[in-house]
Amino acid sequence: MDALEIRNLRKEYAVNGCGFEALKGISLTLPAGMFAVFVGKSGCGKTTLLRLVAGLEEPTEGTVNVRGGARPRTGIVFQEPRLFPWLTVEENIAFPCRGRGKKPPEETLAALIESLGLTPFRHARPSQISGGMAQRASLGRTLLYDPDTILMDEPFSALDYFTRAALRDDLLRLRRERKKTVLFVTHDVDEALCLGQRIYVMDKGEVVRTFDVEDDYPRDVSSMDGLKREILDAIGNGKGCGAHIHKGEAQ
């Protein structure tokens, strides 16, 4: 079953009185449970694509069809945690449910907070926790909403190397346990190799190359130098087409 279908998606903005085409007719299909990563230089259209899938903007042309039951849910994790400073960690995570007039089951909320490693900090305010903990809380807020598809816009880019590595492991574990489809935007090729089952290279509003990575998790990115060079070459050249399937060690 497919989780996401995009057909001929275009987005044009007016910049200084002229039209700027941020996305140029993208079409792709993702199966349910896929971890898809979109990688490319700044301004290539990655975040615009994510915002259109999330419904935060309307396309100039084309369609986005998110599937998942009778009423599909889409959750988004931004680059910044965007926590309410006057609420505790627990209250921030539970906010989407309570904002709809519902109270999440205490056992469900406690189990999620425990899985995120935030139990000792559940009553702390955002100013009292680290950036990594705040981003965990942001992810928890999305997971409690229980979306079918999770959209993540460079969520670890502001964190140090060790915190990023720990959060990637957490994300992979939680995704495996909860069987979610993930669309993840990054400019970090190592991060794309670490996380992605399918990697889309974007340039100037187009998908210029697609790589299917069949290695199991956790991955040793240092053994994937060949594939990394291909991705960097696709980003640098801004051209190319078709799919590449990586299996086992990079050649």
Describe the structure.
- The chain is of the alpha/beta class and about 250 residues long.
- It has 2 domains: about 1-75 and about 150-160 and about 175-250, P-loop containing nucleotide triphosphate hydrolases (Rossmann fold, 3-Layer(aba) Sandwich); about 80-145.
- It is built from 7 helices and 10 strands.
- It has helices spanning about 45-55, 90-100, 105-115, 130-145, 160-180, 190-195, 225-235, and strands at about 1-15, 20-30, 35-40, 60-65, 75, 150-155, 180-185, 200-205, 205-215, 245.
- Strands 5-6-7-3-8-9-10 form a 7-stranded mixed beta sheet, sandwiched between helices.
- Strand 1 (about 1-15) and strand 2 form a beta hairpin.
- The chain is globular, with a radius of gyration of 18 Å.
Rg of Cα set? 18 Å
Number of domains: 2
CATH class of the largest domain: Alpha Beta
From the spread of the alpha carbons, the general shape counts as globular
Through-space gap between termini: 32 Å
Total DSSP helices? 7
**Which class of secondary structure composition applies to the elements?**
alpha/beta
Secondary-structure element string? EEEHEEHHHEHEHEEHE
Provide the spatial order of strands within the biggest beta sheet. 5-6-7-3-8-9-10
**Average pLDDT:** 87
CATH topology of the largest domain: Rossmann fold
The quaternary organization reads as: single chain
Per CATH, the architecture of the largest domain is: 3-Layer(aba) Sandwich
Got a strand count?
10
Largest sheet: 7 strands, mixed
DSSP helix fraction = 25-40%
